[in-house]
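User: Here's a chain of 259 residues. Predict its fold as tokens.
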Amino acid sequence: MTDYDTVSADVEHEEEIPEDHPRYQDLLTRHRIEQGVEKGITHLQGMHAEGRGSAFDYLLGEETIPSADEAERAAAAHLLLADRPVLSINGNVAALVPGEMVELADAVGADLEVNLFNRTPERIEAIADHLREHGAEDVKGLEADARIPNLDHQRAKVDADGIHAADVVVVPLEDGDRAEALEAMGKTEIVIDLNPLSRSPRIAEVPIVDNIIRAVPNVTGHARDLAEAEEAELRTILESFDREAALEEAERRIRDGEL
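Assistant: Prediction complete.
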């Protein structure tokens, strides 16, 4: 047994996880989710969701595959062309990539909005405070003065000047029926999900099959590279992106990839 095999995910600070550990990103995500539960940001159900995602990431080789990078570039182009882009934040997203989401919002001029399945005033405030601690100046989702049509439960609550009015929405780690309801509203959806067979990425205009820890910084990097691009160049990127091919490559990688 190697020293790597004896490293525990039960650490107090993520800096204690050795970056050269072969499962570094998996240990990092587990640690951040656990910390999120302790802080009241992440619901316990989020731990189960993260476990499913971890399994798919393992099958993908725990790396950004070429089709995912193409999707991330297309996502950046959509966000730069948008009139009212919004990044939706749930508990897992807030725990895993709070600073990264703030950086993406800054890069593309998007709003951040907290939207939760298990919504309580305490969790909403905790997540908003957490995002502010990571550099966010304005966080939407506290007003919840509008609803997504044809969707029951607390997750239908959104801000009228946020997700409800958005033309492009990034919905990472999201449930399929909410993705369907947003599509019915005419939103352009960018979904980050490690399972290419789930409803959310199959509904999305841009399905990103990648670990959110890699995906969000990648989209930000592409957005910064494209910041001075002409509208015609951005639209060419969108026209050349093949969402079906991206999903097929991800599924093929999962089924046939070498572990």
